[in-house]
Write a structure and sequence with these properties.
By secondary structure, this protein is α+β, with helices and mostly antiparallel strands. The chain contains 25 helices and 16 strands. GO terms for molecular function: arginine-tRNA ligase activity; ATP binding; glycine-tRNA ligase activity.
């Protein structure tokens, strides 16, 4: 056994590439070791901006030896009439590296075939590793690759060195004009090197002590957080940590050195969101706040070295941030002096989406649609929601959002508050882009949910009308995210709305002059299918069985909250003993109605004549349907689907008796139609709860 190290030295890699590279090379190398039958204890990978390393603990020095049976050509063509080997037999012997006497016959249903047992593996690991290393490096993927020099080889950034050792032995290979060896290079300033690595087991000690590199991304993040908390605490504050930024910062450096910087207190007049965006987006710094959540005139930045003159470096960071904050203060003052009416007029000259008009047109649609949705959800908010819809997009032409586009919506809410708009309006505007993804929170207020749904519904209808419907992985306008956002808001706020009616109202808000590529019926039909697919993905993602979700969707999804209740109740019903037999019984009823009714051109109403019920079993079923009708409707009104499925359990014995003893397709046409209508009455009730035809058992 020995340890193995492969280190790929690179020019500084973009921070967004680093996390995935470490995970990818670990998985690739693990798979290659298993594929080549090389035993090992553990594979670990480490990534920094300048190096990508994979370390294998206790790698076997030789491949495992495995005896396997191989089959060859049929015996009838492997030997001639005299029993002598033919070319087919000779070829089998040669290709498998075996002796003629090792061959035996394998008897199968299709005849006799040549067979042999051979031993594979057993090669020295160091003879296999070179090709494995080249394969692993070439398999790494990047959002973008580049060439350098005259090489045809491509990678995320130019390769600068290759270190590869198995124990104390160099694993020799060449790639991208480089030859592997035992040299590594350290931090550009604090331990440049080169440094010789005597054996793989010495790698980490050399990297840490001589190279001055913290090779683990997790450890770099922990160091930044721990030192940042310590420095902020000395100022009676705490760091405004942002996990995504912490990961980015950790992958920008090899030797993290957090320090505190300061800025003028006068900049604290700017909104907290503006200050944090200036620090985080442009300077990759963290804000520091007090116990009340108010920012302090300090920031935390992370250096990539330990400077000799800390104050000089600090002043450099402060100077750059000050310039950013000066710009932000200028934008802030200018925007505060601008009326919403000026911005709304500017929106008339900003295109929304090709044939769909301007952002001014969209603002008027949002004004009308938000009031309509509010009328369905909370009529007391109609006036406020109309106003919020009208000015929701105004901040898109503000100076601040033009500079800091991540603040769209947030600045609209802040400016609204400063300009005297109602608090409900301001909060709704600030939350209009939530949820921003499947893990993003929904708006915290009902007003925010209304404006968000309004905006998303308007975009969905517009894009579908232009036939810009997502296909495969293509979703340029994030329509799947928009649909999921509407679904989540309806569920989390328990909104009593018809999701398809929202799209109907959104369509009616568009100008009659728009040249649609689909007519209204097609748009709404395709949107219905799209929403159904999003609901299916949502509930299966919550852990519900696909067949249960499909069956519940088959009963309708216009009321999303009722759909959720049906999915939950049907999921519990599916766990009960006898569920599968119930499904078969109810599917039988549905199939009979489909074949004898719609497919045969017979119109069934579900209205049956009691006096034509002859057999005791059909009378019993009719009576049970009648006895449970009022209770069914009461439970339906209360969305009590658990007890509704309980009624189905009560009905099943009567349905079974009916099928066992009553001839539905009677020679008497009158009896046949009456019995079909009795089943139609049953199926009408079943179809309100689930599409039992979708339940495969």
């Amino acid at each position: 056994m020995a340890d193995f190290i492969l280190e790929i030295g690179i020019e500084e890699m973009p921070a967004r590439f680093v996390p995935r590279l470490g995970e990818d090379i670990k998985n690739i190398f693990s798979d290659l070791l298993k594929e080549h039958m090389i035993d090992f204890a553990e594979v670990a990978a480490f990534a920094t901006p300048r190096r990508l390393s994979v370390f294998v603990t206790d790698i076997a020095l030789d491949q495992r030896k495995v005896e396997e049976e191989v089959s060859g050509p049929p015996a009838r063509i492997a030997y001639d009439a005299d029993g002598k080997p033919t070319k087919a037999c000779d070829g089998f012997v040669k290709s498998q590296g075996i002796k003629p006497e090792d061959i035996y016959l394998i008897k199968t249903d299709k005849g006799d075939y040549l067979g042999a047992k051979k031993t594979v593996g057993g090669a020295a690991t160091v003879s296999i590793l070179p090709e494995m290393c080249i394969t692993a490096i070439k398999k790494l993927s990047f959002p973008k690759k580049m060439k350098w020099g005259s090489l045809e080889f491509t990678f995320g950034r130019p390769l600068r060195w290759l270190l590869c050792l198995c124990g104390d032995q160099v694993v020799d290979f060449e790639l991208a004009g480089l030859t592997s060896g035992r040299k590594t290079y350290g931090h550009r300033v604090m331990g440049a090197g080169p440094w010789d690595i005597a054996s793989a087991s010495d790698y980490f000690n050399t990297i840490e002590q001589k190279c001055s590199v913290v090779i683990s991304p997790e450890k770099r993040g922990e160091l930044v957080r721990a030192e940042g908390d310590k420095l902020a605490s000395a100022l009676n504050g705490s760091v405004v940590w942002k996990d995504s930024l912490l990961q980015e910062v950790s992958n920008l450096v090899e030797f993290p050195m957090p320090i505190i910087g300061n800025f003028e207190e006068s900049f604290l007049e700017l909104p907290k969101e503006v200050l944090l965006t200036s620090m985080e987006s442009h300077q990759k710094c963290f804000g520091i706040e007090n116990s009340d959540g108010n920012l302090l005139p300090h920031f935390l930045c992370t250096l990539n070295l330990k400077p000799k003159e800390m104050d000089l470096v600090r002043k450099g960071w402060e100077k750059v941030l000050k310039a950013r904050l000066e710009d932000a203060r200028f934008f802030w003052a200018k925007d505060l002096d601008t009326d919403f009416g000026v911005w709304l007029e500017k929106l008339e000259h900003v295109v929304f989406l090709g044939p769909l008009g301007t952002m001014g047109d969209k603002s008027r649609r949002l004004e009308n649609l938000a009031a309509l949705i509010a009328g369905k959800v909370d009529p007391d908010l109609q006036t406020e929601m109309a106003r919020a819809g009208k000015i929701a997009k105004a901040d898109l032409v503000s100076e601040m959002v033009n500079e800091f586009d991540k603040l769209q919506g947030l600045m609209g809410g802040i400016y609204g508050f400063k300009k005297g708009e109602d608090d409900v309006v301001c909060k709704a505007i600030s939350e209009q882009y939530l949820p921003a993804g499947p893990e993003s929170p929904v708006p915290s207020t009902i007003g925010g949910a209304i404006i968000s749904m309004t905006d998303k519904a308007d975009t969905l209808v517009g894009c579908f009308g232009l036939n810009k419907i997502p296909t495969g992985a293509n979703d340029a306008y994030a329509l799947r995210r928009a649909a999921l956002g509407i679904i989540r808001m309806i569920l989390e706020f328990r909104l009593s709305v018809d999701i398809l009616e929202i799209f109907d109202m959104a369509y009616d808000g568009y100008s009659k002059d728009i040249k649609w590529k689909l007519d209204k019926a097609e748009i709404l039909e395709k949107l219905g299918d799209f929403i159904s697919s999003r609901l299916r993905a949502y509930f299966t993602g919550q852990g519900y069985e696909t067949r249960v979700v499909d069956a519940a969707l088959g009963a309708g999804f216009r009321d999303v909250n009722a759909l959720k209740a049906r999915v939950e109740a049907l999921s519990e019903f599916a766990k009960e003993e006898g569920f599968e037999q119930s499904v078969l019984t109810f599917k039988r009823a549905s199939n009979i109605i489909r074949k004898q009714g719609s497919e045969a051109g017979l119109i069934l109403t579900g209205g049956y004549e009691v006096e034509k019920l002859i057999e005791p079993q059909e009378k019993d079923l009719a009576k049970k349907l009648d006895d449970t009708a009022d209770r069914f409707e009461e439970l339906w009104g209360n969305d009590d689907f658990t007890n509704l499925f309980g009624i189905l359990g009560e009905l099943r014995p009567f349905v079974d008796d009916f099928f066992d003893n009553v001839m539905v397709i009677s020679d008497d046409e009158s009896l046949k139609i009456n019995r079909l209508n009795l089943l139609q009455a049953l199926v009408d009730r079943l179809s309100r709860l689930a599409d039992f035809g979708a339940l495969q058992v």
